[in-house]
UniProtKB/TrEMBL annotation:
Entry keyword set: 4Fe-4S, Electron transport, Iron, Iron-sulfur, Metal-binding, Transport
Keyword DNA-binding in annotation: no
Cited Pfam families: Fer4
Domain 4Fe-4S ferredoxin-type residues, every copy: 31-60
Signal peptide: none
Cofactor: [4Fe-4S] cluster; [3Fe-4S] cluster
Top-rank taxon, per record: Bacteria
Function description: Ferredoxins are iron-sulfur proteins that transfer electrons in a wide variety of metabolic reactions.
PANTHER family: FERREDOXIN, OXIDOREDUCTASE
Annotated protein name in UniProt: Ferredoxin
Keyword GTP-binding: no
Species, as recorded: Gracilibacillus marinus
Length: 79
């Protein structure tokens, strides 16, 4: 399981999440920040500090939000 960064990040990119992540698995992309789902340890620290509430647990995603998990997987597959 992993946390996922959603649409509000696309216009915000505040970046507090990347600062607090204990396993350094949040990376800045051109359009938003991404969480590496293979490295995330589900601590929730990023969700707690996000100023635009852009971060949700993988299993809490709505069907419309699933694309953001796929975007994250594709982002890290191409790194
Ligand atoms: Fe990093 Fe924890 Fe957020 Fe996962 S839940 S991305 S480990 S801060």
């Amino acid at each position: 399981m992993a946390f996922v960064i959603l649409a509000p990040c696309e216009t915000e990119k505040a970046g507090e999440c990347a600062t607090v992540c204990p396993v350094d698995c949040i990376v800045e992309g051109t359009d938003q920040f991404y969480i590496d789902p293979d490295v995330c340890i589900d601590c929730g620290a990023c969700k707690a500090v996000c100023p635009v509430d852009a971060i949700e647990e993988e299993y809490d995603l709505t069907p419309e939000q699933e694309v953001y998990l796929e975007k994250a997987e594709a982002f890290f597959a191409n790194e």
